[in-house]
Amino acid sequence: MPDTQAHNTPGDWVAPVPERETPAMPETWTSQLDAILEELQELTQSIPVAPIVDREIDNRLIQVRLGIASSLFTALRYKHPPTAAHALRVALGCSAWCIQLGVDSEERDKIEIAALLHDLGAIGIPDRILQKPGLLDVDEATIIERSRHMSVEILRACCAEPAILSMVENVPARYDGTRLDYHVLGNDIPFGARMIAIVESFDSMTNEQIFRPAMSREAAMTELFACAGSQFDPELVARFADFCCHDQVAARQETSCRWLRTLDPRAIERYWRLHHAPVPSGQLDRKRIFETRLLDNMYDAVIFVDSQMTIQLWNSGTERMTGILSKSVCHQQWQPELLNMRDEKGDVVEPDGCPVSCSMRSGVQSLRRLVIWGRNGRPISVDTHVIPVMDEAGKTLGAVLVLHDASSEISLERRCQSLHDEAITDPLTRVANRAEFDRVHDMFVKAHSQRRLPCSLVICDLDRFKQVNDVYGHQAGDDVIQTLASLLKDSCRSGDLVARYGGEEFVMLYTDCDNATAARRTEEVRFAMSRIPHRRMGGRGVTASFGVTEIQPGDTPETMLRRADRALLMAKSRGRNMVVQLGTGSAAGTRSLEGDVPMALSHVGHDGTRIEHDLFTSVPIAVAVEKLRGFIADHRARILEADHNRLRLQIEHTATGPRRRRNDRVMSFSMELELDEGLADDTLDGAEPGTIPAGRIVSGTRVRAVISPVSKRDRRADDVVRRSREVLLSLRSYLMAVHEQSDPLEEDGILAEDDVAPREVDLRQFQALRPRSMTRWLRQVFRRRPGPRAN
Questions:
Q1: pLDDT at 506
Q2: Distance separating alpha carbons of residues 764 and 102, to the nearest angstrom
Q3: Which end of the chain is less enclosed by CB atoms within 10 A, N or C?
Q4: Cα-atom radius of gyration of the chain, to the nearest Å?
């Protein structure tokens, strides 16, 4: 067994981790808060999207980094390509982070190799588990856990470096030492293992998985902070957050150049005992390019399955219909339960009765009406057409499965597509104009309020476009604009919208698309645009910058657009030619934000409604203030007062959602915010360390929000409450916060409905009530308006 303490022996590099500081006194952090509040109008920091790297470059990176051991990585890639891609991203991320931390080259080499091969044990996991879209049972989870040990055993047979084995072995170890079968904790865990654990968790959360959608980067970072001290090294989590604020594009380029140009092959081979001859990969022929373009733009779902029942192709139509991304299922075993296939009677289609396997056995085409699960778990009636594929000798090579949506319900995407086809187009680019974008964008926001359907917004702007017009003429500028518009249209799926917002600015609405997926699709456009030569410019190219965001709870069309615009400005300020995403998103990592906002009612009467809301977010107060800056900028809130840890704002709110009325006007709210450091539970403050239950301590930031309408004139009280909730829900989304305690008023059902009409309340009578009679008295004070109850 390798010595897991080897990283602390003399001569080995140890990261210069500072001593844990005692909590700052209120005067210290309130002065820091004052300094940050003075810059509230500046742009916040975000994380640029990692650039696309060509597959050939990826192969070369693996060969030069692993040397003779690249065959191990090749085996992992053939077994499960998503896991191999994840390992490469983790290795590049760890390498760039090591450069920022100043890790010496020898230690960095070991960390890079350990990161590339830490998931090698996935080779021993059955395909049915790797491709399972639902939760794992106990036995399946045990196999996944066992694969971690398989990684070490496979490497032990060929790796001659104990430090690498120690890192791979202890990547799953928890920082607090509570994970079974791992006997190290805290700083006794190898430094490289602690780094890899953070980077791989962040990468896994921000990329699409077959069992869950991708989280936004802000939500993933919040999750890291929430697990700091228990699962992860808290000091390294803070350093990783700082690292993510730097230019990730430049960091990856620096790492790739180092691997390709400066690595010594003889030094690499000393870690291994085997020999390997890399096999060059081929190139796509012209016919294959045409076929790929056709399949990617088909509305119907098309799936290729080979003779071993392995999925070889999953086109964009299948992604749209099922909600499952291609990279999550390609090279996995095909099974009808993947789509929860059912026959005309509603019975589950068993593997033996699967139309794909039946058609491959018989060699005859199959046509059937079946029901599958679409995205969001809703059933879809589909016409399935299975075509067996055979060679000239009659040997079965596989089958093509085509799924055509036969449901009578017109989907949201069809309605959006109809609007797109009938829209007034921009005469130069033949995409929608700004007026059509405003109309469809408002519809997208309403659809989210009704069905919680995710959508993303992208704003792009050509870099240094004025110089193109000044130097090469306006005709060259028009060519560049048309080229970008063509790329944006090619990236669209059914239901998406591209519009020219003005000049060289374009906007895209991606329906049923989360933050991470939108950023990935946008990065493909950026990558393609940067490599197109323009004839009128003498073969020179033009780049573009992009800002990406996803709708989140409490959003209006205006706040969503401003957040995307902030992301675009960040991309411009960081050097242009990059994609920057902002926002927490709505589908992943924010499920706790979907419900109604519980509120404590202080006063209801003719002089207005005042609502108090206690929030807790697991991020440090400095990070919480950065998120608050984004909330203020996107809502264009006026800062009326900023005093130490208190802040008073004025917000102009426009009603949104399905209950919006034509005569709704902008309503002004006064919001008071008080920020404080502490634990998630007030009852734990001041408790002895030994008396605090395990898992209850969560350091972070408390926020008390008090909101009330500015105008004191009579108005519909339920409208005030409803719109106050929208503002508070938006604040909670920006902070990635949760409500600290449940509200007894909401539990009793008094404030849980929007159709509550309050009467005037005598506060003295309210305060004199005993707790047991308070609820009964409130039920008498509040009456419900006549009419049907809102759903």
A1: 96
A2: 64
A3: C
A4: 28
Strand partners, 725: none
CA contacts within 13 A on the Cβ side of 170: 33
Contact 208, 247 (CB under 8 A): no
Q: Backbone phi, then psi, for 605, in 5-degree steps?
A: -175, -165
- Token pair 């030569």: residue: 533
Q: Residue 295 and residue 268: Cα distance in Å, rounded?
A: 42
Q: How far is CA 751 from the centre of its chain?
A: 32
Q: How far is 595 from 553, CA to CA, in rounded Å?
A: 9
Report how far residue 582's alpha carbon sits from residue 560's, in angstroms, rounded to the nearest whole number: 10
Question: Which residues are 756's β-sheet partners?
Answer: 784
Amino acid, res. 670: S
Instruction: State how far the Cα of 303 lies from the Cα of 790, in Å rounded to an integer.
Output: 42
Helix/strand/coil (H/E/C) assignment for every residue in 27-92: HHHHHHHHHHHCCCCCCCCCEECCCCCCHHHHHHHHHHHHHHHHHHHHHHHHHCHHHHHHHHHHHH
Are 547 and 570 a contacting pair, CB within 8 Å? yes
Q: Do 12 and 6 contact (CB within 8 A), yes or no?
A: yes
In whole angstroms, what is the distance from residue 227 CA to residue 466 CA? Answer: 47
Beta-bridge partners for 671: 649, 707
Structure tokens at 325: 């991304």
**Cα 511 from Cα 217, distance rounded (Å):** 19
**Would the pLDDT of 66 be above 90?**
no
Catalytic residue flag (residue 504): yes
- Give the Cα separation of 370 and 777 in Å (integer): 56
CA–CA gap between residue 492 and residue 417 (Å, rounded): 11
Task: Catalytic residue, from 413, 504, 505, 523: name it.
Answer: 504
Residues 669 and 727 sit within 8 Å (Cβ to Cβ): yes
- The separation between CA 787 and the C-alpha centre of its own chain, rounded to angstroms, equals 41
> Are residues 582 and 548 in contact, defined by beta-carbon separation less than 8 angstroms?
yes
Question: Residue 399: what pLDDT?
Answer: 93
More confident residue, 739 or 3: 739
3-state class of 705 per DSSP? strand
- Residue 736: predicted pLDDT: 82
How does DSSP assign 158-186, residue by residue?
A: TB--HHHHHHHHHTT--TTS-STT----G
Q: Are 402 and 314 in contact (CB under 8 A)?
A: no
The backbone region for 430, taken as left when phi is positive above 0, alpha when psi lies in -120 to 50, beta otherwise, is left
Side chain identity, residue 407: S
The answer to whether 386 and 355 are in contact (CB under 8 A) is yes
Q: What is the largest CA-CA distance in the chain?
A: 92
Contact 317, 300 (CB under 8 A): yes
Residues in Cβ contact with 359 at an 8 Å cutoff, skipping those fewer than 6 apart? 365, 366, 386, 387, 388, 399
| Per-residue pLDDT tens digits for 281-334 | 444 456 777 888 888 888 889 999 998 899 999 998 898 888 888 888 888 889
Q: Which domains does the chain have, with CATH numbers?
A: 40-269 (1.10.3210.10), 286-405 (3.30.450.20), 412-591 (3.30.70.270), 595-680+697-784 (3.30.530.50)
DSSP assignment, residue 261? Answer: I
CA 491/CA 316 separation, integer angstroms: 11
CB 753 within 8 A of CB 789: yes
Helix (H) or strand (E) holding 756: strand 756-757
> Given the DSSP bridges, would you call strands 756-757 and 783-784 parallel, antiparallel or unpaired?
antiparallel
> Using CA atoms, how far apart are residues 592 and 220, in angstroms rounded to an integer?
14
